[in-house]
Design brief:
The structure holds three protein chains of three kinds.
Chain A (H helix, E strand, L loop, with lengths): L2 H5 L43 H5 L16 H12 L22 H7 L2 H4 L11 H18 L3 E3 L5 H18 L6 E5 L5 H8 L3 E5 L9 H7 L4 E7 L11 H10 L3 E6 L18 E4 L19 E3 L11 E4 L5 E4 L16 H14 L3 H19 L15 E4 L1 H4 L5 H10 L6 E2 L8 E4 L7 H20 L1 H5 L12 H6 L8
Parallel strand pairs in A: 2-3, 2-4, 4-5, 5-6
Antiparallel strand pairs in A: 1-7, 6-7, 8-9, 10-12, 11-12
Helix pairs in contact in A: 4-11, 6-11, 7-8, 12-15
Chain B lengths: L7 H11 L29 H13 L6 E2 L12 H7 L2 H4 L11 H18 L3 E2 L6 H16 L3 E5 L4 H11 L5 E5 L14 H5 L3 E5 L10 H10 L3 E6 L16 E5 L15 E5 L12 E5 L5 E5 L6 H4 L12 H38 L5 E2 L8 E5 L4 H8 L4 E2 L2 E2 L10 E5 L6 H16 L3
Parallel strand pairs in B: 1-13, 3-4, 3-5, 5-6, 6-7
Antiparallel strand pairs in B: 2-8, 7-8, 9-10, 11-12, 12-15, 14-15
Helix pairs in contact in B: 3-11, 5-11, 6-7, 11-13
Chain C lengths: L6 E2 L4 E6 L2 E6 L1 H7 L4 E3 L6 E2 L4 E6 L4 E5 L4 E6 L2 H4 L3 H4 L8 E5 L11 H16 L1
Antiparallel strand pairs in C: 1-2, 2-3, 3-9, 4-6, 5-8, 6-7, 8-9
The chains are: A alpha/beta, B alpha/beta, C alpha+beta.
C-alpha cells in the first residue's frame, strides 16, 4: 500500500471481489451473443445460390437454434480454463489399474499431423496410398513380433471391438469345423466388456471361478469345458496383476476339447519383450494400443484394438486385408470368402495406429526395458505399502498390484474414500471396486513412466492416508477437500437426468 | 531411453528395496519356457529425428499435391488452427475417461456441451458422449431399435453407405437380426413404394441416410410418418454432418446415427473420427454409450458427472446396451471446439458454400459431352455422374494429372459401373473444378 | 421391522397375498444394500410371470438388481408412482413403494416362503457374514 491511503480520512470499505470466472467457468452457450463468430470463411468463388431455391424449401432449415456465437479468444479461454479442471498424465502419476496410463510421447502427435498422413482419404487408390499402407504393414509386423502370433487385423476401433472381432473369428473358425458351439467361459475377475462382447458375438456367457491364488481354477475349467464351449477369454496377467502360471495347461485343456484360448491383451504392458502369448498357447488376442502402446486416452478415447491370431484363423480376418503384391506394392484385399466381414468403415483408427508405430520405433527391442520398469514400479509400491493395506491375493505381482480396503473399513473408510483423498495429495486415484472378486479393491498400476521420486511420493501419500483413516476417518470420508468442486450428487443426476443445456 | 525416468542406480536400489537381486526375478511367475531369451526382432530404437524422417517418407508416398474429389463419408472442410492447439493441451490429451468427476470437470463440461450441440443440430432430445464412428453408430442404433420394438428384422436402404451396411451385416449375423434391403428410385432416393405394410409391420426400423450415399436428400418427415404407422422406427444416418447447417434436421426420426468427422477432424486415412447416437428422451435407457449429466456438488455448485451408467458394460456386463467402453472423447472435443468457433452463422455459411460449389461443379461437369447427372434428387455436396465409359479407366488417366477423380460406384453397385460419385466442399477452389472438367473432357475425347 | 403378514424370499422380495392377489416389493434389507434407488423397471400389466424368474429391475447409481418373482401368475397392476419417485423404495419399501400386484395361479403358493421371523434370522446371518 502506498502512503496515499493513509492520507485518506476514512479508508473505503474493501469489498470482496467476485471470484474471477476463470475459477468457475460456465458453459459456452452462456457466453454467446448474436453476431459474434470465431471463424471466417474465404468468400465464395462461384456464383452464390439460394439454398431454398436449389434444394427445395422443404429440405432447408432455419439457423440452428441455441447454437453458440462466440469469438476466437473467448473460445480459447473457455477451453483453456476447462482444461485446468482436469487431471492428466502430463500433470502427475495416474495409477489407474488396468488402464496403463503411461506417458504419451509428443513426437507421435507431431507425425500424426503430417499433411500427407492426416490429409489422406481412406478411399484414395492404393497407388497413391502406399505410405499409409506401409505404416499399417510395419505396425502389423511389429505387433506380430511382440506377441508371437501369425496374422492380424488392425481394423477394430478399440479393445471392446477387438474382443468382438476375435470372438466372431472364433465362431467362424469353429463353424467351418462343423459346430460354432454355444458358450464362452469368462473368469469372474474379467473386465465388463468381455461378457458384453460375448453376447454380441451370439454366445452365452459362462462364468468361471478364480482359485485362492486369484488364478483360473483348472479343475473347474476341466469340468466346464464341454463340447458346447467355444473359448475361454482370459486376461493375462489377469486383473489382479497375476500371471496365470498354468496358462499352458489351460490352453491344452481347451485345445483337447476343440475349444480356443482368447487372450484379452489389456495387460500386455507386463509382457512386451519378456514373453509372447503366441508361445503359451493363445489362439486369438487383442491389444489396446491406447494402453500398452502409449496412444493418448484423450479423456476416454480414441483407442485401437488390433486382433492377432494363429495361422488357422487367418482366413476369417475382417476385410479388407492388407496384402503385399509382387514388387513389394501393398494393396487392400476384400476378396476373402471366409471373412467375418467388416467391423468398422475404412481401415480403422489409422491415426491411432500410426502413433503406436511411432512408439514402437522409439523403443525397438528396448521395449523390454519399459516392461521391466513397469513391473519394478508395481512391485516397489506393493512392498512399501504391504504393511499398511490388506493384500487379498499374495501371488507375485506383475505390472499392477491389488490391495483391498479391509483394514480401513473397520474405521468406516472405504476404497472410494481413500481414492478421493489421494486427489488432495495431488494424485489421480487408482482403480476402485475392480476387479469384482476383491471387495473394496484398490488396483494400482504405476506404469514405467513414474520415476522413483514420483513412486515414493505416492507411497508417502498412501501411508499418510492409512494413518488418517485411523486417526481422523472423517477427513478421509469427506475428501476431496481442495478441488474446485466437491463430491457431486450422482444420485440426483441419475434420478432426473439433465443431459443437455437449455436456454 | 528418453521416455523412461529412472537411472541405472535407481533401478538397482528399487530392486534391492523389493528384495531382489536381478530384474529376471521380477518375472518368476512366468514359466521359464515362455520367457524370451533373445531380444525381439524389431528395428533398432530410433531417435526423434529418425522417427520424423520415417513418417515424412511415408507421407511422401501418398498423394502430395493431388486434388481429390472423394467424399463418401470422409470430407475435407476448413478447420481452425485454434482447435488443434487446444486439443493438444496435455490436460485434455493425456487424461482418462472422467470417472473421477472432481478432477475431470474439464472433459465432463465439454462432453455436456458436445451433447447439447448434437441435439441442436439433429433436432433430437438427447445425444451420447460419442461412439467409434458413423458405421458403428449406425449398427448400435439398429440394435437399439431392435430392443425398443422387440422386432428382429430391419429394412435398410441401399442408398446407405455400403461400408456402414457391411458393418451392420457383420454384427447382425449372429444376433438373429434379419436385414432386408430397400432399393432406390430413379431419382436416387429410397424407394418408398417398397415400404409395404407387411414389410414394415414386422420391422424394428427403416434405416436411411440423408444426405444419402449418392449425395441426395431424403424426405425424413414423410418416411417417418410411413414407418410409424406400422409401429416401426426410423433410423437416419448422417455421414456428412456439415449438411445440418442448412438441411432440415431429422427431428422426426427416432434415432439419428451420425459421423462427426466433418466437424474439424482430418481424414487421417479413415480415423479416428467421432460417431454420435441421438434420440428421443423416452428412449434414453436403451441408448448405447456414455452420457454426461448436470448435477450439483455439496456446496450447491453446478458440476457434471457420467450418468445412467447402469446401461453400460462395466455394470450390466452381458446385459449391457452395448460392449463399447473406450469411445472417441478427444474427437468429440475437437468437434465441440470447432463448432463453437464456427458458430451459428458460420455453420450456415459453410453449408451454403458447399451447396453452391457442388451445384457449380455438377453443372460444369454435366456440360461435357456424354456426361450426365444420374439422379434428380436435391443434393448437398456430392452427386453421381454417369460417364460414357468406366470410371476406373477415367480415373487412371486423371491420376496422371494429380487428380483423384470420382469414386467408382460399380464396386458396391454392379448396376452403376459407369457411375462416379463426386464430392465438392467449400475448400475446393473454382480453378480445380475447372481443371477436373478439362481433364475429364480430354480423357473422353481420347479414343479408347 | 419386517411385517408379520408378509412372506419373504432369499432374494429379498416380499409378498403379501390378499384374496388370491399378491402385492410384491423389495425388503428394507434389499433397499439398504442397493443404496439410493434411481430407477425402477417394471413389467406391463397383463404380463405372465413365473416364480423364480426376473420380472424387472431396481437400479442405484452403480448397480442393477434383478427382481425375482416369488410366485407364478399374471400382473394386474404396477406402481407407476415409482417411475417419477424411485426414492420411495428407500423411504417406504414395505408400504407405498410396492412394485407390482399379481394374480396368483395358485393362491397358496406363497405359503412355502419364509415368514417374518425366518427372514429376520436370514438377514441377521447375512449381516454377520459380511462383517466377518
Amino acid at each position: 500500500m502506498s502512503s496515499k491511503s493513509t492520507e485518506m480520512e476514512a479508508p473505503p470499505t474493501i469489498q470482496d471481489a467476485a471470484t474471477h470466472v476463470s475459477r468457475s467457468e460456465g458453459l459456452i452457450f452462456e457466453r454467446s451473443a448474436p453476431g459474434k463468430r470465431g471463424m471466417e470463411l474465404p468468400p465464395l468463388d462461384v456464383p452464390a445460390i439460394d439454398p431454398a431455391a436449389v434444394l427445395g424449401s422443404e429440405f432447408v432449415r432455419d439457423s440452428v437454434e441455441g447454437f453458440p456465437e462466440v469469438s476466437e479468444i473467448e473460445t480459447i479461454r473457455h477451453f483453456t480454463r476447462l482444461s485446468t479442471w482436469n487431471y492428466a498424465i502430463d500433470i502427475g502419476m495416474y495409477p489407474l489399474g488396468s488402464c496403463t496410463m503411461k506417458y504419451n510421447p509428443r513426437v507421435n502427435e507431431f507425425v500424426a499431423r503430417l499433411d500427407g498422413l492426416a490429409g489422406a482419404h481412406p478411399m484414395q487408390p492404393a497407388e497413391v496410398a502406399q505410405g499409409c499402407l506401409r505404416i499399417l504393414y510395419d505396425l502389423r509386423k511389429a505387433l506380430l513380433a511382440i506377441t508371437g502370433m501369425d496374422a492380424a487385423t488392425l481394423q477394430p476401433a478399440a479393445g471392446a471391438q477387438g474382443e468382438l472381432t476375435g470372438l466372431l473369428m472364433i465362431r467362424a473358425y469353429l463353424a467351418s469345423k462343423g459346430n460354432a458351439r454355444k458358450k464362452v467361459l469368462i473368469p469372474d475377475s474379467a473386465h465388463g466388456t468381455n461378457p458384453a462382447s460375448v453376447v454380441i458375438a451370439g454366445y452365452e456367457v459362462q462364468n468361471i471361478k478364480s482359485n485362492r491364488l486369484g488364478e483360473i481354477d483348472t479343475d473347474h475349467l476341466r469340468e466346464l469345458t464341454t463340447e458346447d464351449v467355444a473359448a475361454l477369454m482370459v486376461t493375462n496377467p489377469n486383473t489382479l496383476g497375476v500371471f496365470e502360471e498354468r496358462i499352458a495347461e489351460i490352453a491344452s485343456i481347451l485345445h483337447e476339447r476343440g475349444a480356443l484360448l482368447y487372450m484379452d491383451g489389456a495387460n500386455m504392458n507386463a509382457l512386451a519383450g519378456v514373453a509372447r502369448p503366441g508361445d503359451f498357447g493363445v489362439d486369438v488376442m487383442h491389444l489396446n494400443l491406447h494402453k500398452t502402446f502409449s496412444t493418448p486416452h484423450g479423456g476416454g478415447g480414441p483407442g485401437a484394438g488390433p486382433v492377432l491370431v494363429k495361422k488357422a484363423l487367418e482366413p476369417f480376418l475382417p476385410v479388407p486385408v492388407l496384402v503385399e503384391k509382387d514388387g513389394g506394392r501393398l494393396a487392400l484385399d476384400s476378396n476373402r470368402p471366409q471373412t467375418v466381414g467388416r467391423v468398422r468403415a475404412y481401415c480403422g483408427n489409422f491415426g491411432v495406429l500410426l502413433r503406436a508405430l511411432s512408439y514402437i520405433l522409439a523403443y525397438g527391442p528396448g521395449i523390454r526395458q519399459a516392461t521391466e520398469d513397469a513391473v519394478l514400479n508395481a512391485n516397489y509400491i506393493r512392498k512399501q505399502l504391504e504393511e499398511y493395506f490388506d493384500l487379498p491375493y499374495s501371488a507375485p505381482s506383475m505390472h499392477e498390484v491389488v490391495f483391498s480396503d479391509a483394514r480401513q473399513k473397520r474405521n468406516g473408510v472405504n476404497t472410494m474414500d481413500i481414492a478421493k483423498r489421494l486427489i488432495d495429495y495431488g494424485f489421480h486415484p487408482y482403480t476402485t471396486a475392480f476387479p469384482l472378486i476383491v471387495p473394496g479393491a484398490m488396483m494400482i498400476e504405476p506404469t514405467e513412466s513414474e520415476s522413483r521420486v514420483e513412486c515414493d511420493n505416492f507411497i508417502d501419500a498412501m501411508r499418510s492416508i492409512a494413518q488418517e483413516a485411523e486417526t481422523n476417518p472423517e477427513l478421509v470420508k469427506t475428501a476431496p477437500h481442495n478441488t474446485r468442486v466437491g463430491r457431486l450428487d450422482e444420485v440426483a443426476a441419475a434420478r432426473k437426468p439433465i443431459l443437455r443445456w437449455k436456454p | 531411453m528418453r521416455y523412461l525416468p529412472k537411472s541405472p542406480s535407481e533401478r538397482q536400489e528399487m530392486l534391492g528395496a523389493v528384495g531382489l537381486d536381478s530384474v529376471e526375478e521380477l518375472f518368476v511367475s512366468i514359466p521359464e519356457d515362455f520367457r524370451l531369451r533373445e531380444p525381439l526382432p524389431l528395428h533398432r530404437a530410433l531417435s526423434e529425428p529418425e522417427i520424423i524422417e520415417y513418417f515424412k517418407a511415408r507421407a511422401a508416398e501418398n498423394a502430395p499435391g493431388y486434388t481429390s474429389f472423394l467424399g463418401a463419408g470422409v470430407y475435407q472442410h476448413q478447420r481452425s488452427v485454434v482447435t488443434d492447439s487446444l486439443v493438444q493441451r496435455g490436460e485434455f490429451l493425456t487424461s482418462y475417461t472422467p470417472y473421477q468427476a472432481e478432477i475431470s470437470q474439464g472433459t465432463l463440461t465439454a462432453i455436456f456441451e458436445f451433447q447439447t450441440l448434437m441435439c441442436q443440430l439433429t433436432g433430437q432430445e438427447v445425444a451420447n458422449a460419442s461412439m467409434y464412428d458413423g458405421s458403428t453408430a449406425l449398427t448400435e442404433a439398429v440394435l437399439m431399435a431392435e430392443r425398443l420394438t422387440g422386432r428382429h428384422k430391419v429394412l435398410v436402404a441401399r442408398s446407405v453407405h455400403p461400408e456402414y451396411r457391411q458393418v451392420l451385416a457383420t454384427y447382425a449375423k449372429n444376433l438373429g437380426l434379419e436385414i432386408e434391403e430397400i432399393g432406390y428410385t430413379a431419382s436416387g432416393q429410397v424407394d418408398a413404394k417398397a415400404l409395404t405394410k407387411d414389410r414394415l409391420a414386422s420391422a424394428a426400423a427403416l434405416v436411411v441416410q440423408s444426405p444419402n450415399f449418392f449425395g441426395g436428400l431424403e424426405n425424413i418427415a414423410a418416411l417417418a410418418e410411413t414407418v410409424h404407422r406400422e409401429g416401426a422406427l426410423l433410423v437416419d444416418t448422417i455421414a456428412e454432418a456439415v449438411s445440418l447447417g442448412i438441411v432440415r434436421p431429422p427431428a422426426e426420426a427416432d434415432i439419428v446415427a451420425m459421423e462427426g468427422q466433418s466437424f474439424g477432424i482430418s481424414p487421417s486415412y479413415g480415423g479416428p473420427f467421432v460417431g454420435v447416437v441421438a434420440t428421443r428422451e423416452k428412449f434414453v435407457r436403451q441408448m448405447p454409450g456414455r452420457l454426461a449429466g448436470q448435477t450439483t456438488d455439496s456446496n450447491g455448485r453446478r458440476g457434471f458427472v457420467l450418468t445412467l451408467a447402469t446401461r453400460e458394460q462395466h455394470i450390466r456386463r452381458e446385459k449391457a446396451t452395448s460392449n463399447i467402453c473406450t469411445n472417441e472423447a478427444l474427437f468429440a472435443l475437437v468437434a465441440t471446439i470447432h463448432l463453437c468457433l464456427l458458430g451459428k452463422e458460420g455453420i450456415r455459411e459453410m453449408a451454403s458454400q458447399n451447396v453452391a460449389k457442388a451445384q457449380f461443379a455438377c453443372a460444369e461437369l454435366a456440360k461435357i459431352p456424354g456426361v450426365r447427372r444420374a439422379f434428380a434428387a436435391p443434393f448437398f455436396n456430392e452427386f453421381v455422374l454417369e460417364f460414357p465409359r468406366s470410371v476406373k479407366l477415367i480415373n487412371a488417366a486423371l491420376i496422371r494429372d494429380k487428380i483423384i477423380g470420382p469414386l467408382p460406384l460399380g464396386v458396391n453397385y454392379p448396376e452403376l459401373t459407369k457411375h462416379g460419385l463426386v464430392c465438392v466442399t467449400e475448400t475446393m477452389p473454382r480453378g480445380e473444378i475447372a481443371r477436373l472438367a478439362t481433364a475429364v473432357r480430354r480423357v473422353l475425347e481420347t479414343p479408347l | 421391522m419386517y411385517p408379520a403378514d408378509f412372506r419373504y424370499t432369499k432374494d429379498h422380495e416380499w409378498i403379501k397375498v390378499d384374496a388370491g392377489v399378491g402385492t410384491i416389493g423389495i425388503t428394507d434389507y434389499a433397499q439398504h444394500e442397493l443404496g439410493d434407488v434411481v430407477f425402477v423397471e417394471l413389467p406391463k400389466v397383463g404380463a405372465r410371470i413365473k416364480a423364480g424368474e426376473s420380472f424387472g429391475s431396481v437400479e442405484s447409481v452403480k448397480a442393477v438388481s434383478d427382481i425375482f418373482s416369488p410366485v407364478t401368475g399374471e400382473i394386474t397392476e404396477i406402481n407407476s408412482v415409482l417411475t417419477d419417485a424411485p426414492e420411495k423404495i428407500n423411504s417406504d419399501p414395505h408400504g407405498s413403494a410396492w412394485l407390482v400386484r399379481i394374480k396368483l395361479d395358485n393362491a397358496a403358493e406363497a405359503n412355502s416362503l419364509m415368514d417374518a421371523k425366518a427372514y429376520q434370522t436370514y438377514v441377521d446371518e447375512k449381516a454377520q457374514e459380511q462383517s466377518a
